[in-house]
Amino acid sequence: MLRKLPPISTLNALVAVARYQSFTKAAMALNVTQSAVSHQIKLIEDLWGVKLFERTGHGIATTDAGKRLAELTREYFERIGQTLDDLRVVSSHETLRIDTLQSFAVKWLVPRLRHFDELYPNIDVWISTHDQFVDFSANAIDIAIRLGDGRFPGCHTTLLLQEEVFPVCTPEFLERMGVPASPRDLLRYPLLLRLGEPSHMNWEDWFAVAGFPGVKLKEGTRFPDTNMALEAAMDGLGVALARTAHVVEELAAGYLVRLFDIPCPSNVAYYLVCPQGHEDRPNISAFRRWIQNEVATMSKRPEAARASA
Fold first, then answer.
1. pLDDT at 2
2. Where do the structural domains in the chain lie, given as residue ranges?
3. How far from chain centre, in Å, is Cα 171?
4. Using one digit for the tens of pLDDT, what is the confidence trace for 124-134?
5. Which of 48, 175, 248, 304 is deepest in the core (most CB within 10 A)?
């Protein structure tokens, strides 16, 4: 039997009262009178034949039926909102400008963009790359993807990906040089170093986590970013220090192997950043949901099992 649904205003009242546990606060949030909220809740209770809230000595308490129906109604409203956002995006051709790090764009984002294009063919993605954080207004950027600690003043941030740091090299390199028995043995191997950001994890940090603090590396080939160091490792020049997102595909294909199963979380994470107040724009919301799903899918793979999203 299909039960009659009450007006939307009464469902809004149900969600608000369950959230605030107060008729007065719910009325303030909905910009209506308290008596109006009470009337709307009574209308639902009479229509459905269930008790949603009970009065106590300290106010009101949501019944089990009230909790279940309020949660179901809240999810219903959220799904309608997401669907409307998606429909608005599909109905108009728009440009989404994304700025990120070159290594992340090359190794992670670009290979997955076809999935986004299949879902949102009316959004043209424009990608730019910079090492430093960009001024959104001056550069006409909609979204930035950055490594950091999540503190981006004046911006809305979404945690995308937390990674591990670990050494990698090719199987052929190990055949030539031998498999290291302990982390300290890596000091006898050509280690590929970075010239980049000193606040990010480096070889000295990894050796300290592996139980060998105080290691200082002065000799070795140096590269401006992780991507170049990994390319050199792929060519058999030595051992590179990798982050999870950069090598998932290479590990899965067997082009690279991870040396030592030592948990070493990166001290920075990838964040999706946009100007405060822009986070609910349809194209930004669509991209955020898509990339979060991509990260979740990647994190389930054995090669990224230690990384969390």
1. 46
2. 8-90, 95-309
3. 32
4. 999 998 877 87
5. 304
